[in-house]
Amino acid sequence: MILNVDLTGEVPIYQQIRDQIVEAMAHGALTEGSTLPPTRTLAADFGINFHTVNKAYDLLRQEGLIRLGRRTGAVVTAAATDQLISPDWTARARTLLAEAVARGVPAEDVLQVCRTLLDSFGDMQQEDSQ
């Protein structure tokens, strides 16, 4: 798994790390039981404070996507099916959809982008299993 962080971007670094880990999970690059790099190692690789990585990992832990242990470090867990569509997820999706509406993007275009993105995750997982 390769992470790319824009240190000068508008999106906070911890959010970039969290989002890229989630995308790696969706693409199948990280599966249940996969270990994530130690916080200090990842922080050193990017030249950032390890608390920034801790914050990203803690968000993933709160969302039930990883578990953190002293001996095992950060490990990807199986997503609980009852938590797939959380209120937080709905709020973020609502904001993105509101932005599309505010910009005048037709609903069918938004749906097509969503379908394409969802299909791309499925395509990656199918390639990995072959």
SSE map:
Blueprint: H1 13-27, H2 39-46, H3 50-62, E1 66-69, E2 73-76, H4 87-102, H5 107-129
Helix pairs in contact: 1-3, 2-3
3D architecture notes:
This protein folds into two domains: 1-80, Winged helix-like DNA-binding domain superfamily/Winged helix DNA-binding domain (Arc Repressor Mutant, subunit A); 85-130. The mean pLDDT is 88. The protein is mostly helical and 130 residues long. It has helices at 13-27, 39-46, 50-62, 87-102, 107-129; strands at residues 66-69, 73-76. The longest helix is centred in the last third of the chain and has 23 residues, at 107-129. It is built from five helices and two strands; from the N terminus they run H-H-H-E-E-H-H. Helix 2 crosses helix 3 (50-62).
Outline of the structure:
The chain is mainly α. Helices cover 58% and strands 6% of the residues. A two-stranded antiparallel ribbon has the order 1-2.
